[in-house]
Amino acid sequence: MKIFLENRVIKLSQKPPRVVSENDITCEYSSLSQVSKAFEDFENKGTLQRLIFWSSDNFKQLKDDFLSLFKYIKAAGGLVKNERNELLVIFRYGKWDLPKGKINTSRSRSTSPGMKDNGIPELPGDAAIREVKEETGLRQLTILGKLPSTYHIYYQKDTRYLKKTYWFGMIATSDQLLIPQTDEDISIVKWASPDELQIIIESSYPSLKKLFRAAI
Known about the structure:
216 residues; Nucleoside Triphosphate Pyrophosphohydrolase; 2 domains; 11 strands
């Protein structure tokens, strides 16, 4: 499990790391207090690049204890390509990004607008389609398959958040009108050619770079 804190990385593993640098912290899991202290040391010392927790015998408890340090959020989004092999990208908060958003925890599983809540959590695939449509203006798209999830940490006021984003490969036609969702601070929606993607990658988030590169 690889988690990004801006451009730094926290890893949760079942095996000890093979290579360690002077800018890494490594901890064999023992307790919640150990995990909490090591993370606080890491987040307060910006020169450290990696924090690695590992446990061969108790990985589930390690993961549970680490997640308990955060408010855990689930989101979903799409890596959308068209018939010209172009990738759908958005520009928000000064960064190139991919369309995504939070999964609704109490909502009809139908993606049709105006449906009443029925208490059933939204499925990741449904959420991904809904968010891509809302953020980009697309009306017709199809999921091709599931992609690796990403994890990143962010802060709002005095709260730490850890967001897991489920990603799905999708396809859509390029003749559809693109409309940026400006009330979500999206200023640009565009189809990016493979030649453009290298520049876009450099102006994106570290947690998304691998996904972007997979689209080239």
